[in-house]
Amino acid sequence: MTTVLVKQTEGCSDTELPLEGAQACLEELKESLYKKEREITELLESEQTPIPPIPVAQPPCAVLLRVVVEKAHDICSEVSEARLLVDHMFEENRVALAQAREKLDHMSQMTADDNNRKEEDNSDPEWLDCGTEHVLLLQETLRECEITQMALDCIRVGDSPSLSDCDTAPELDEMLGKGEGVKSVGQQLLLLQDQLKQVREENRKVVENYTSERTMRKKYYNMVEDMKGKIRVFCRIRPMSRAEAAQGGAIAVGCLDDYSVTVETPRGPREFQFDRVFSGKSSQEDVFQDTNSLFSRLIQSAIDGFNVCIFAYGQTGSGKTFTMVGDRDQKSPGIMPRAFNAIFDILQENATKFDFKVSVNMLELYNDRLQDLFLSGAEAQSRRVEIKRNRKGLVFAQGAETKEASSAGELFAMFQQACANRHIAATKMNVESSRSHLIIGIMVESRNLTNGSVSFGKLSLVDLAGSERAAKTGAKDDQLKEANSINKSLSALGDVISALSSELPHIPYRNSKLTQIMQDSLGGNAKTLMVVNVSPSDCNLDETLTSLIYATRVKTITNIAQRNLESKEIAQLKEVIMKLRSGQPVEDEEV
Ligand SMILES: Nc1ncnc2c1ncn2[C@@H]1O[C@H](COP(=O)(O)OP(=O)(O)OP(=O)(O)O)[C@@H](O)[C@H]1O
């Protein structure tokens, strides 16, 4: 395309207008764009096929995406060629305009001088007319150049040269209708401008197609990963805090689309992909969203008998508690209180088909010690809570108080009581920093009223304490001890994530209580969602990159989630065993 354009422009004779070459070239360009649009439409139509089955060698949209990208590149280069041509014409006309002005000034001066002299000499009036005529001709040429320049100027900024806007409209109109050369320039300019508009429009369409293809491809990819049992990872960028703004921090983290985060590093931008990305503008509702959202599906799974874990991870002050718990006065509740409502909404809807029992325990891991948040004071200190695993590998807290909840309101009241017992303190990075990991376990037992089968689901909601650097948080004494314990447990979590993502034969779960608690959620029998929280500011660039790199590793971990379901007979036999163990009488028909 470039070669053709250059040849045609260079090949113009003195009498030929360079615009004619450009028009031919644009005609060709237009034709090729129509052809490309037809190709894209055909490709899009041929892509109306269902989601490919697993394993997928290469998703079809990836092929289409490459074609769309190539076409977008072609069109972009064609648009810039057209722009170069207009710029070139503008420059030529500018020189012609300056020359015409100079000639006119010179000629006017000469004519005026000669007229004065001839008047004084009483010379032939015919000569006077001749000079004046020459000046008039030059004036007309100057006018043409000025109009052309105005039209080119409009085209360069992307406007349409409008006749009515211009005070020279009647003259331009007349010229377009009269003089052959001028008409050709004016018409070709308008044509050029029209074609440029078309190219822009087509370019916009291609970019739009490319963006929607890219989004669709990521969505399908995520669905396939979900089906494979991969841990889902959401990323949430919080708004810039006042402290960060006061430090003069610039925004270094942003979302490219619903699935991509970009981070400005000293070595250039770095992109990360997640199952969903929320910007600082996203509300709590956006995060917890409508019934099709992953959160709702996960809660449904817990009720159906799966082990489900949702946890927030990130640097101190990055927004984990805001995401999981919400703000202090619960005007913007987070995932936990919203999950309580969602559970009981689903139970309510299915009340005629199932018998449900919801029980809950709430713990914190503080200074490497598990504490029951339903207890306080000396009672909490003396209670020993230990992490155990049952024969199916599911983790449970032995010794923890388990309470039954019959409504979302009751569950929320228990939650508030637990939060009041949680260790929080002010640090330089966060006025209400969590000094412990909060672990809420909601067990849902559902008995099918039709066939008598019983399923046992567990929803674990975890708000991790944030990793921190003592120098940044200003931690001393007890807070330094807390920070060391938090960092140690998070480092153990990091080791587990690294071992799982590298598929090492040994996974160091036993190195920390935190990793023991999360054993079934990371690489085990669970459907897991991690929310990685990050600050947008360049003041926290190192911590943000570390969090995003860990979150990217978590995405590669595969869990094998199985439903915990027992037939009616097994459930009955278990009940009998329990009764016998506790010395209760057993009826004949029960056995
Ligand atoms: N998406 C958000 N929108 C508005 N404010 C937010 C958002 N995320 C966090 N914040 C605010 O930022 C501050 C720090 O958030 P938060 O306490 O949730 O951080 P954290 O990661 O839990 O920190 P730590 O690990 O120290 O407990 C809080 O004042 C919180 O209200």
From TrEMBL:
Coiled-coil stretches: 19-46, 182-209
Domain of life, per lineage: Eukaryota
The UniProt record lists the keyword Acetylation: no
Localisation per UniProt entry: Cytoplasm, Cytoskeleton
Residues that bind ATP: G314, Q315, T316, G317, S318, G319, K320, T321
Primary localization class, coarse: cytoplasm
GO biological process: microtubule-based movement
GO cellular component: microtubule
Domain Kinesin motor, first and last residues per copy: 230-557
Region Disordered, annotated ranges: 106-125
Xref: Gene3D superfamilies: Kinesin motor domain
GO molecular function: ATP binding; microtubule binding; microtubule motor activity
Keywords of the record: ATP-binding, Coiled coil, Cytoplasm, Cytoskeleton, Microtubule, Motor protein, Nucleotide-binding
Similarity section: Belongs to the TRAFAC class myosin-kinesin ATPase superfamily. Kinesin family.
Protein name: Kinesin-like protein
Species per Swiss-Prot/TrEMBL record: Coregonus suidteri
